[in-house]
User: What shape does this take?
Amino acid sequence: MTSANVTNGSKPYIVEDRPMISRSSGDRVKITHTIEPGKEETGCLTCFYSPPEYPILAKCPCFDYPEYIVNEIKASQYINIRENSIEYNQPTLQPAKSDTPLTTVFCCGHSPTILTVRDRISTIYFDDVLMDSIRNDTRSCNPLHTFCCGGRGEELRLESRFCWDACYRGQSIGSEHCGVLNSCCCCVPCVPVGCPECLCPCAARKTIFVEDAETAVKIIAKARDDARIRLQVMER
Assistant: This one.
């Protein structure tokens, strides 16, 4: 570690090899904006919360997950625009740890009745290839679709395309999403735009669910451009 990288109170933290990692203060990260995350809706058929003791009822059309876990999920969501990056949490849920020897044996260490939040926090710096394009990718008639079938809010898309916008850039080496494939071969370097994300997780694209996608696009694009100018970072 060079002296330029040692944090020292309120002095600037400078990383010469990658300027976008730098920040104005060595002991803190400045948050410039917050964006309201999208609210998950279950659709018009869902009328009840499942009883806390029976979360399995959420698999039925008329029941949502227990109210306590729904509230925990909502409380865990955030989208912070920082001086050099965007950080967001799109949490999911999972069974809590088992609390008795019996459930440990028969439920593989999980509780059969209690749910807990599992955070999925991502940080994307403004010089990342994903920041090439920031756009509103909300589906058409989103309020109607959400009322009938549920939804997670409006969709903000971060992506990097080439070849007249017909292909996404791929991740050719070392993708953490490719599992066994990553140990024996490289991932595809490009992905056609029409290919579903579930089939091609290596494509350079991310979806963030927000309350107001148009406003979020303007805020993130301005923060990205300001950071690149301030730190004199050229597009990759």
